[in-house]
Amino acid sequence: MWQNWSGYVSCPDTRVLTPGSEAELADIVRQASRNNQPVRVVGGGHSFSPLVATDGVIVSLDALQGVVEIDKPAGIARVRAGTRLFALGAALAAEGLAMENLGDINVQSIAGATSTGTHGTGIGLGNIATQIVGLKFVDAEGREISASPTDNPDLFAGGRVALGSLGVLTELSLRLVPSFRLRLVRGKLSLDECLARADELIARNRSFEFYWLPHTDAVLTKAWNVTDEPVDQRGWQRYLSDVVLENMAFGALCRVGKAVPALCPPISRFCASLLSSSTQVDASWSMLSTVRQVRFNEMEWSVPAERGADALREIRALIARREFPLMFPLEYRWVRGDDIWLSPNHGRDSVHISVHQYVGMPWEPYFDAVQAICLTHGGRPHWGKVHSLAGPQLARLYPRWDDFLALRERMDPAGRFLTPYLRKLFGLGATAG
């Protein structure tokens, strides 16, 4: 049985195959084609949307990990698609290199993170897929196809964020930077003050984000900047903050809120009272990641940067009006625009608004209401998070939507890498490729 990290998506009767080589992977794909079975690839299982769910074959790339080659003068690494981000960060650091930015989860595979448009924060920093300079796929016939800005440029433009619908991504070439350390400063502000000072805060820091605690006026701010300071030796303090307080203690409070939903607002206010200032210094790949042990479901929207504050204020008013039982903070991040066809940041700088609900608690009314607000502000969904858009709705949000559909048809005319969910997403017929 396969299920995602939150347990929301599961495939109890689907085989999960783990090829040990690209040749074995190609054989699996060819066999599935002969058996008329769909093929889906799974990474770390951290997508909340049912992108992987299939009654065909699920392929795990966990045995296809590691750095293939590093070109130090060019600052480019060839990386196997199944490589987990925490392992990649450590491997690159050993060579004096790093990725320029990462998301706040490091247990994903590099292919899964890039294919869904995963990102970190920083208005001068794009999502992780913008660091790709080359791709290698296995198509439905088991053939290898490469793409770069000069080799199959349409496949490169559309394939960096493709939801696994163009083929099996087996290798990525990444643009790197020299390794660096980051100083993280945590602080506490009111939500209104944080929004009023947002332009200043994002201009002053390499990366900046905040978490607003529902039912309160408090936000936790996080600001990262490059530093030459030595790495902190206070490992116990980071363990106390990241693991004991943010996971063990918070998880216990969530279990109380789940049992007695009326306690959710006071629990959120109690958590807000514990917010305090702190600093940490570590290698970039470690400093950007956060331990996530408390399970949840998530929705996330990319909104034009200039519309984000208004959208958040409407969400705050919604929560006050509807009194949803919420304990998880709302996350607010900035991402630079790009030219990737299905990137939620295509053609515009954006803010990303993420809302969460503890596992086992009702999320549908809350998520539906947040979706309605974000759509009025030009929002686009994060592909790895819960949303209910499909077909014509998405076509209106993505200027290169039709170009991507044409590319998908050319790469996979038989629909080998599709599922009922993806067919609905792309506005295709139930059995059409």
Number of domains: 2
Cα-to-Cα separation, first versus last residue: 27 Å
Low-confidence stretches: none
Report the biggest beta sheet as strand number plus sense, adding barrel if it closes.
Answer: 8 strands, antiparallel
Q: What CATH first level of the largest domain would be assigned?
A: Alpha Beta
Could you give the order of strands across the largest sheet? 16-13-15-14-18-19-17-20
Total number of helices: 14
Would you count the extended β strands for me? 20
CATH structural architecture of the largest domain: 2-Layer Sandwich
Rg from C-alpha positions? 21 Å
Helix content: 25-40%
Query: Beta fraction of the residues?
Result: 15-25%
The dominant shape is globular
Secondary-structure-based class equals alpha+beta
CATH topology of the largest domain: Alpha-Beta Plaits
Please tell me the overall pLDDT: 94
